[in-house]
Design a protein that fits this description.
The protein is of the alpha/beta class. The chain is about 20% helix and about 15% strand.
Length: about 400
Amino acid sequence: MAAESANMAPPQPPFRSLSELSAEPPGPSELPAELPPLPLPPLTTTTPPSAAPSAATSTCMAAFPSIVTEKTLLAGRTSGHDVSVNSANPSEPPPYSTPPNTLQASTSGDSRGLPVTASGPPSYTGLPRLDYKLYSPPLFTLSLDCTTLSSRAEHLTASASALVSLVRMQASIPPKPLIHIRGNRGRTVDFDFKMNLMSLLVPDDMSRRMDYIRCVAPGELAFRGGAKPDVLPEVGDRELEEWCRRFVEDPAPVKSFALGRVVANMDALYIEGQIRSLIASTQYKGQVNISFPVTHANVKVKSAEKSSKLYLGMKNLFSSKHKYEVVQSVWPFASARNGEDGRRCMVQSEEVWWREWRDSIKYAVAQKRQNGAYVTNEDKLEALMEGKGKGVTSIDWGGSDFDEQGV
């Protein structure tokens, strides 16, 4: 037990400034087990810095991934939130967002252009310090799978300044990355549980946060106000404001504007490998599925529906839907990929996290936890105080795979 306590995460050294982060190629809302870590592309921001932007890429921002590597954020992707692998070689570190002139960062705003107060958001013991009211704003609806927050509020499609304000506020809170661990033999589910990783994105010291807003880069394939991804049009310096203005002024009867929240530079493959090795040590012979879903990953503003369903149906039939998927809120797990020099983690490294949670995970497997129940700090406390999970070497899994299927 003392050894486990000694392995708790040491205090992290100060982070490098964002402008010092290197940009090299490539790693997943879900990372398939067989894919390597996804890399991030050159970034553009709401107010570009003086440095020249990096080379344009031809990647697609059409479907926001949620766990990626920061240096090739949009290197490739599949449908929904799944991420595929590609590579990019940005020649310069990614520029990071700064507030517009209307918000003075030195006195009344932070690096995302948000007003701040001396006290900051309310603090809840044991939870990241965030303004949790922003996850359920008025006039918005959360999807059943908790991935997308959407609204048809008319003022958001009529006022560019209102839309800009919404994007900045929603970009100030992170997505909720999870680990979903499931084992089955045929139709028998032996264990099925989840873990919440959101606390690894938000340090206790708010001044050390590295999250930022990025807009689609020149030459990057994305939904830029059309029915299909394209590399045009491009906008000027005030990118976020300009994209919001274009959306509001778009006369299309059916249109949507999306903000995607993504996690960068988390080594999901390392975590997955450790979990698979741990489960194998229990002599488990069934199929193990480990995924990394991300909830609260999208915010969408849609054009208001008309009262007549017939009118709406005819409108959808004869008019194309204009999509604006050009803005992302990036939440780095670390300043660089695992193994790179000078890497700084926001809270703790993957290795430290694993040492803290491995006994709790093994105990959840041994107890055959079901129905997507969460492994929580209470499990960690029991592992530290009572040694639960430490003595587990093998588990009686019952009959064979064929027996479980009734053959």
